Amino acid sequence: MDKLDFKHFRVDSKIQLNNIPTSYSLETNGEKIKDVLKGTRKKLGKWQDKLYAHGKYAVLICIQGMDTSGKDSLIREVFKDFNSRGVVVHSFKVPTSLELKHDFLWRHYIALPARGKFGIFNRTHYENVLVTKVHPEYILGENLPNVNSLEDINTEFWKQRMEEIRNFEKHLTENGTIIFKFFLHISKEEQRQRLLRRLNKPEKNWKFSPGDLKERALWDKYQIAYETAINSSSTPNAPWFVIPSDDKDTARCLVAKILLDTLIEYKNVKEPELPQEIKNNLEEYREILKKETL
Q1: At residue 179, what are phi and psi to the nearest 5 degrees?
Q2: What's the domain count of the chain?
Q3: What is d(CA 243, CA 252) in angstroms, rounded to the nearest whole number?
Q4: Cα separations in angstroms, 138 against 129, 155, 294
Q5: Is residue 196 part of a domain?
Q6: Is the Cα dihedral 105, 111, 117, 123 positive or negative?
Q7: Nearest residue to 263 via CA among 17, 7, 8, 45
């Protein structure tokens, strides 16, 4: 488990989600998986410090998945050892009235991480080709000049929207943003069990909405929408990773390892060196501090 083979998870060619397993064995027990995650996230935290000091790259992590796929808890557990000054999480909900007055990428663009920082999108700009693909009537709320009815939301419309997303990501990577896109892949049965746990545990009841069942009934449509989006937008510089997520600890460990194993290959990310004139006087600065009296 020291070095993951990315080919098991990275989308480098066309996929069919129903052919990809939702579980994966790390060939060890649960406690060992948790220990590996702890060690990995500490290393990620140290790498984040270097990124912050280096200041020439940003890292954008996009997390998508069906309801109950474990997005929130994954973010909590994988990034627990990050310095809060260097990471920002954005959870994108239904667009506000202000957001609907702009193009669909605007609210994501203004939330992008600055160089030196990590940005995490919990649900992402892909909602605009996922939820809206299943519910095209939502597009009418964007008040677009060339969309006056559902008939206008055709194949060409979706092709253009996907092209805009690819161009958005290309622009980001060309300007120093490292992009990871993770799809947390769970089975329909696992979702059923997780929804039941929300109902059976009083402290989890607040997470449940009758709308969850309505969306669950559209499972097949969502799977097709995800498959189409992933196949249309996994590129060498902004790849998708399909993460088997029926087991949450395994999914968290996989995401953390993929991040670390990829990021440490950026050998030029390091703390800047002090100017030579300051280096030459370090002993003098030490003596000044030692002689200070409080």
Answers
A1: -110, 130
A2: 1
A3: 9
A4: 11, 16, 65
A5: yes
A6: negative
A7: 45
Residue 1 domain flag: no
Mean pLDDT of 264-276: 90
CA distance 243 to 230: 13
Nearest to 150 by CA among 129, 132, 163, 165: 132
Residue 173's nearest CA partner among 67, 47, 85, 60 is 60
Contacts of 294 (CB under 8 A, 6+ apart): none
Name which of 250, 255, 256 is nearest 22 in CA terms.
Answer: 250
Q: pTM for the full model? A: 0.93
Q: Does the pLDDT of residue 286 top 60, yes or no?
A: yes
Residue 204, pLDDT > 60, answer yes
Within a domain: 148: yes
Residue 129, token pair as written in the block: 């080709």
Tokens, residue 165: 């997303």
The letter for the amino acid at 155 is T
**Residues spanned by the domain of 249:** 6-290
Q: Where do we find the tokens 């989308």?
A: 11
- Ramachandran area for residue 58 (φ above 0: left; ψ -120 to 50: alpha; else beta): beta
pLDDT digits (tens, 9 = 90+) for 105-150: 999 999 999 999 999 999 999 999 999 999 999 999 999 999 999 9
Pair 196, 216: CB distance under 8 Å: no
Closest CA to 48 of 272, 260, 265: 260
CATH number of the domain that residue 100 is part of: 3.40.50.300
